Amino acid sequence: MSIPLIEKQRLINTQYVADQKMLRKEFCKLTRIKVEKHCINGSDLAEWIIKNQSPDQLRELVAMIHLINKRKAPLRPFSETIATGLLCCK
User: Fold this and answer.
1) What is the pTM of this model?
2) How many domains does the chain have?
3) pLDDT digits 0-9 by tens, 19-58
């Protein structure tokens, strides 16, 4: 038995909203992120990521953040890498 298309779309949208909330929550903890000569705060970076990434890419980032948290590793190096990639592709 397959799930109707409308139900699949609602599940995808719900997951996308949950990913956005999780990303905002995690990146709000970061006060300043320095990348070369630029400086950005965590909430601005989260909004920038949400604006520029597709739902699938956002899902991958959230999965990576879950792994970082599971290992009790700092999120800052990961966020700096993302910010560098976004600045280079700008």
Assistant:
1) 0.79
2) 1
3) 999 999 999 998 888 888 888 899 999 999 999 999 999 9
Q: Is the pLDDT of residue 85 over 80?
A: yes
Buried b (16+ CB within 10 A) or exposed e, 25-45: ebbeebeebebeeeebebeeb
Task: Specify the 3-state DSSP secondary structure of 40.
Answer: strand
Domain around 12: 5-88
| SS3 per residue for 11-37 | HHHHHHHHHHHHHHHHHHCCCCEEECC
Could you give the CA distance from residue 44 to residue 23 in angstroms, rounded to a whole number?
A: 11
